[in-house]
Design goal:
This protein folds into 3 domains: 129 residues, no CATH class; 154 residues, Tetratricopeptide repeat domain (Serine Threonine Protein Phosphatase 5, Tetratricopeptide repeat, Alpha Horseshoe); 83 residues, Serine Threonine Protein Phosphatase 5, Tetratricopeptide repeat, CATH 1.25.40. The protein has 421 residues and is mostly helical. It has a two-stranded antiparallel ribbon with strand order 1-2. A hairpin with a 5-residue loop joins strand 1 and strand 2.
């Protein structure tokens, strides 16, 4: 069956192969002509030799008639003689230029045939191995239009939740909606959202933002729309649904400088394959945004790969690609990792645990940004100290209560580390 499938693919693309073989034949003809140019030079040299012999005879006749002097005849004989020697050398296998260098060498037909066969076979094999025979033409505009169409028709929030196996509790949703129906204070709804999102009650946070939208209507702020989008993305485990997109568009309409909204829009385009649009949204955030913001950290780790997929040559500006010098007790840096690689396993484990302990102590006494807490949670998970990681995550949620963007990054670390979000 596989052989027949291959034959069918070849037949379906007979036109392509016919054109490819025709072009190859033209190239090989030029190739052979160049290699066999030595034979052409030999034939031309033989013709030139006959002409020079006639010229020598004509010189003798002119001397007999007295039209030239003996000195002129000698000079002409020397010039023609030199040309005769050059032509004779060319006929023997090459043409001699000024300075005695051979300009063209004749190759035999068997050698030319072997070289031509190797080049043709190698080209076909190379394309068959690394090319994509039978792949249809994909003009850039058509590809972009196809990606845009796929983004426009991507699964809804409910479809994605179903795909993930997440089934909202209809009874619980109805009960919460009923309780929220009595709440008309926008500020209290915003506080309730922050509390529920921080507690990991993502579904309740989504419904709370829905109620806020009902209460304030067109008075929703850019931050409100962004918070609703964050909750939807968290509920869909990182997927930016059409419903989340609507909120992000509304947020950017009110405040084009909203960094979280711009980051998530870039994430949406990344998921849809529009890497060029992701790069357009992310580059200004990376170069002009707060370098300590968790979304900027995420962008810094991925933007070079995104740029490459978008066909853009981009390198992190000087300084942006460097890991900031860690503060005392901030955790292992590049030098620490290099040193640890040369240690015995038990020493390496002790070193890592010591650094984690220092970071934990510093966060407990001095606090730190969300990236420090994220690093500590993941480090404890790697050390398989999940109970401690869960405790640190719970404490971090309290530290960043009311800051949904930071909480969403912490929640991602918890989910990926196997903790209870």
């Amino acid at each position: 069956m596989a052989d027949w499938a291959g034959i069918e693919r070849l037949m379906a693309n007979a036109g392509f192969w016919a054109v490819a073989l025709a072009l190859s034949a033209v190239v090989m003809a030029v190739f052979v002509t160049a290699l066999r140019r030595g034979r052409d030079v030999e034939l031309a040299a033989a013709a030139d030799l006959a002409i020079y012999k006639d010229q020598l005879a004509e010189i003798e006749r002119d001397l007999t008639r007295g039209t030239i002097t003996a000195d002129e005849a000698a000079r002409l004989r020397d010039e023609v003689g030199r040309r005769v020697l050059d032509a004779d050398r060319a006929r023997a296998g090459g043409t001699v230029q000024a300075g005695g260098q051979v300009a063209s060498v004749r190759l035999s037909w068997p050698v030319v045939g072997i070289l031509a066969a190797l080049v043709l076979a190698g080209s076909i094999y190379g394309y068959w191995r690394i090319g994509t025979p039978g792949y249809p033409d994909m003009p850039l505009q058509a590809r972009l239009a196809g990606l845009d169409a796929a983004i426009a028709t991507r699964p809804t929030q409910a479809d994605e939740l179903a795909r993930l196996g997440v089934s909202p509790d209809a009874a619980a949703d109805a009960g919460l909606r009923a309780a929220l129906a009595d709440e008309t204070d926008p500020d209290r709804l915003r506080d309730d959202f922050a509390a529920r999102f921080g507690a990991g009650e993502i579904r309740a946070a989504v419904l709370t933002m829905g109620r806020l939208a009902e209460v304030v209507g067109d008075q929703m702020t850019s931050a409100d729309h962004t918070n609703r989008a964050i909750a939807l993305v968290a509920e869909a485990q990182g997927y930016v649904s059409p419903e989340a997109e609507d909120s992000l568009r509304a947020a950017l309409t009110l405040d084009i400088t909203n960094e979280v909204a711009r980051y998530l829009v870039g994430e949406m385009f990344l998921q849809g394959g529009r890497f060029d649009q992701t790069f357009r949204f992310w580059r200004p955030l990376l170069e002009d945004g707060n370098p300590a913001a968790p979304w900027v950290v995420s962008i810094r780790e991925r933007i070079e790969a995104v740029a490459g997929l978008a066909g853009v040559s981009y390198r992190l500006p000087e300084g942006l690609g460097l890991t900031p010098r860690p503060s005392p007790g901030a955790g292992p840096g590049a030098g620490d990792v290099a040193a640890a690689a040369e240690m015995a396993p038990e020493d390496r484990q002790a070193m890592i645990e010591g650094m984690v302990a220092q970071l934990s102590d510093r966060l407990a006494t001095e606090g730190g940004d969300v990236e420090d807490w994220n690093r500590l949670i993941r480090s404890l998970a790697v050390l398989e100290r999940l109970d401690e990681a869960q405790t640190i995550y719970d404490e971090a949620k309290e530290r960043f209560a009311g800051r949904p963007a930071e909480l969403s990054f912490l929640r991602l670390a918890a989910v990926e580390s196997g903790l209870k979000p």
